[in-house]
Amino acid sequence: DRSRGTTPEPAAKSVEITVYAYRLLRVLERFATQSGQRAESARWGGAADRTRRAVRERMWRIDLATFCDLDPRTGNVVGGRTDRGFLPFVTDLASDDHRHGLERTLLDPEKFWTPFPVPSLAAADPRFDATGASDGARRARPSNGRVWPMTNSVVLEALGAVDEGRAPRFREAAAHLL
Predict the structure, then answer these.
(1) Average pLDDT, the chain
(2) Contact indicator for 83, 151 with CB cutoff of 8 Å
(3) Quick one: 177 exposed, middle or buried, by C-beta within 10 A (0-12, 13-18, 19+)?
(4) Which residues of 113-139 are buried (b: 16+ CB within 10 A; e: fewer)?
(5) Quick one: which of 142, 135, 102, 100 has its CA closest to 119?
(6) Residues 89-103: tens digit of each pLDDT
(7) Which of 49, 63, 70, 167 minimizes the number of CB atoms within 10 Å of its CB?
(8) pLDDT at 7 over 80
(9) In angstroms, rounded to a whole number, what is the distance separating the alpha carbons of residues 55 and 106?
(10) CA nearest 61: which of 50, 70, 48, 74?
C-alpha cells in the first residue's frame, strides 16, 4: 500500500523481467570493466551471477521443462507454461542442462508447436484460446494463447543459438517458424 509508505509485493517474479535485468547487469559489468572500474565490475558481475543461479535453481521447473514465473511469497509457479519461458535461452541463463526442455516443450504440438507457433500459453493449458478470448470476451493484449511476433523473434534467436550437435532439428524448426 503506497499510502502507508510500503510497496506492495509484485504479483510474480517474472522470467521476462529477470532476463532483462540480467542482461542489464552484464552490460554494466562490461562497461565498468572497460572503464577500469574493477570494484564496480565485480559488483555488477556478482549481482549477475547471483541472478543466474536464482533463475537456474528457482525458475527452472524440471517437471514442466521450462522456466516459469514464481509467486514471490511461496516460490510456486504462477501462469504455467508461457512463451516467456523461452527467453533465458537467448542468454547464458539457460545451460546445456536446460536445452532438452527447449526441445521437449517448444517443439511439442500439444504445448507450443501448434499450427501457428509460438502461442503465449501452452496449448494444453485449460486457459488456452488462440483467438485471445477470455471469459467470453476477446481481449486487446491477451496472453492466453495469442501469438506475439516479439516472442517469436526471441524463439528464433534461441533456436539459432543451439549448439551444432542439436542443430538440425532446431534449424528446421527455425526455418518453419520464420
Answers:
(1) 88
(2) yes
(3) middle
(4) bbeebbbbbbbebeebbbebeeeeeee
(5) 142
(6) 999 999 888 988 888
(7) 63
(8) no
(9) 19
(10) 70
pLDDT at 114: 93
Burial of 96 (0-12, 13-18, 19+ CB in 10 A): exposed
Give the DSSP letter of residue 105. Answer: I
C-alpha 72/C-alpha 76 separation (Å) is 8
Three-class secondary structure assignment of 122-134: CCCCCCCCCCCEE
- The three cell numbers locating residue 36: 577500469
Let me know: does 71 contact 78? Beta carbons within 8 Å: yes
Q: Give CA separation, 31 vs 25, 36, 51, 93, in Å.
A: 10, 9, 18, 20
Alpha carbon distance 29, 53 (integer Å): 17
Show the 3-state SS of 37-64: CHHHHHHHHHHHHHHHHHHHHHHEECCC
Pairing relationship of beta strands 137-138 and 66-67 according to DSSP bridges? unpaired
Structure-block grid coordinates of residue 23: 542482461
Cα separation values, 128 from 10, 81, 110, 147, 148, Å:
24, 11, 11, 11, 14
The mean pLDDT of 56-80, rounded to a whole number, is: 93
Amino acid letter, 29: E
- pTM, whole model, 2 decimals? 0.85
Q: Is the pLDDT of residue 166 over 70?
A: no
